[in-house]
Amino acid sequence: MKVRVHYLGYIKNMLDKKDEEFNIKEGATLSELLDKLAGLYAQPFKKEVFEPGLRDLKTGFVATVNGILMDQLNGVQTRLKEGDNIILMSLMSGG
Question: What is the pTM (predicted TM-score) of this model?
Answer without folding.
Answer: 0.91
